[in-house]
Amino acid sequence: MTEELTVTEQMNQTLSESRETLSRLVEILSGQQRQLQALQQKVAMLEKLTPMQVKDVNLRIRQRGCELEMEHALPAGGAEKLQTLIRRQVRLETGARSTRDIARCDYPVVCEMISDWEDYDAIEKARRACHA
Questions:
Q1: Which phi-psi region, left, alpha or beta, contains residue 77 (left: φ > 0; alpha: ψ -120 to 50)?
Q2: Across 10-116, where does the E strand assignment appear?
């Protein structure tokens, strides 16, 4: 009977150790999962716009320049000047060298930035450049 108790005690101790080991493994795996998710988010931040998104951003810039040219009655060539200024502002805000280098996660922000762009000093600068 005592032998049965010692075997049972050994089995209980082994089970207890196994539970502890499993709980440590769960902690390790959940830590690795959090690290993997953080890494995936960083990779997503580095992905560039798709070619269609680049075309869309450039189209939005051209359209906004034309809208502002008509809205502010700029002379011919004003739209191109404004498009250059809008593009420059987008590059400065995103830290990209060109629209192709904009991070994919910034696409909605850039689209909103373009549609809201109306820098009166820049518009007057474009007006003066057209008259020069």
A1: left
A2: none
Per-chain mean pLDDT for the chain: 89
DSSP β-bridge partners for residue 103: 48
3-state DSSP assignment of residue 80: helix
Q: Which residue has the tokens 């805000």?
A: 93
Q: Is the pLDDT of residue 118 over 80?
A: yes
Structural domain harbouring 57: 51-131
Q: From CA 41, how far away is CA 30, in angstroms rounded?
A: 17
Q: Are residues 33 and 80 both part of a single domain?
A: no
Same structural domain for residues 41 and 57?
no
Do residues 55 and 116 both lie within one domain? yes
Judged against a pLDDT cut of 90, whether residue 57 lies above it is answered with yes
Q: Which two tokens stand for residue 60?
A: 């939005």
Mean pLDDT over 81-109 rounds to 93
